[in-house]
From TrEMBL:
Residues 45-100 are annotated as: Disordered. This is Os03g0293400 protein. It comes from the Eukaryota. It comes from Oryza sativa subsp. japonica (Rice). InterPro entries: Histidine_triad_CS, HIT-like_sf, Znf-C2HE. One of its GO terms (biological process) is nucleobase-containing compound metabolic process.
Length: 312
């Protein structure tokens, strides 16, 4: 993209993405060939042979990032470990309820389920904000904005939005009301914030949970394209729309196509494209454009002005 270079693409991100795709595909194919070659040698060498020098490749940095992401997941899981054996409690709950799920969740992805089923084990946690018979409210351990909290259903069997039916509408409305209440509390502390309430189409953690997230996205925990696109594309389903659709159709329309998470980075206000997260963050910190028109309808966005109008 450097205009001083003879091969400048002149902000043609489509062509740039194609070139990068071809380059990384070639690198990956060569890397696989090297690994397969090394494995073939190991199978024919004596067991006591001196280990070969590690092969490095441009993919090493990607592997490192993935390892760091796994470490973050592990840390997130450990931070909400109860004082008792909640795994045994969970198995008992499942047997008593007769609930079975088709998706297999990793141990780290069970953290919200454990907390929702047994909040009494987490009362000393700084993350836990509220406990009711229907839900718990907690700070996201890795917030993607200045304010980011979760309203987690306590009903066993509701792993995600895909499990929600019309009979669960009263619960969804109570969860939404709780989210609005906490958004209002945060707005009283900082009137410059704007909030959006919604669900991920395909959540990474078990147990139905509603995100209440400020639209500044000013957080060190927002690190990659997946983080950004999970809150700013059609992957994020507004709570008011989910409630309306379930009321009319009996269930929510959910797309399992996660390719949207790999889409180019675009500002959630002006929709301008950006090559990486640092440049995107720099832009949104100063972007004064209005939010897209569809977000300005049906209370999809909550701000000090809309909350004030609701109260009058």
């Amino acid at each position: 993209m450097n205009p001083m270079r003879p091969d400048c693409l002149k902000n043609d991100y489509t062509k740039g993405s194609k070139i990068l795709h071809e380059a990384y595909t070639s690198l990956f194919e060569n890397f696989v060939a090297i690994v397969q070659s090394c494995m073939g040698k190991q199978n024919t060498e004596p067991a006591l042979e001196k280990p070969a020098t590690a092969v490095t490749s441009p993919n090493d940095s990607k592997t490192k990032r993935e390892c760091n992401h796994d470490s973050e997941r592990t840390k997130k899981h450990k931070l909400v470990q109860p004082n008792t054996s909640s795994n045994q409690a969970r198995e008992g709950d499942s047997k008593r309820s007769g609930v079975t799920t088709t998706k297999t969740w990793g141990s780290w992805a069970q953290a919200l389920y454990e907390l929702a089923m047994h909040p009494e084990n987490y009362k000393n946690s700084d993350s836990l904000l509220e406990i009711s018979d229907d839900f718990v409210v907690l700070n996201d351990l890795y917030p993607k904005a200045k304010r980011h909290v979760l309203v987690v259903s306590r009903k066993d069997g509701l792993d995600s939005l895909a499990d929600v039916k019309k009979e669960h509408l009263p619960l969804l409305r109570r969860m939404h009301s709780a989210g609005v209440k906490w958004a209002q509390k945060f707005l009283e502390e900082d009137s410059s914030l704007v909030f959006r309430l919604g669900y991920h189409s395909v959540p990474s953690m078990r147990q139905l949970h509603l995100h209440i997230i400020s639209q500044d996205f000013n957080s060190a925990s927002l690190k990659n394209k997946k983080h950004w696109n999970s809150f700013t594309t059609t992957f994020f389903l507004d709570s008011v729309d989910v409630i309306e659709e379930i009321d009319q159709r009996g269930s929510a329309t959910i797309s399992s196509d996660d390719r949207v998470l790999a889409m180019e980075l675009r500002c959630h206000r002006c929709r301008s494209a950006h090559p990486n997260i640092p440049k995107l963050k720099s832009h949104i910190a100063s972007c004064k454009s209005s939010f897209p028109s569809h977000l300005l309808q049906k209370d999809r966005l909550l701000s000090s002005s809309t909350m004030h109008m609701d109260c009058t």
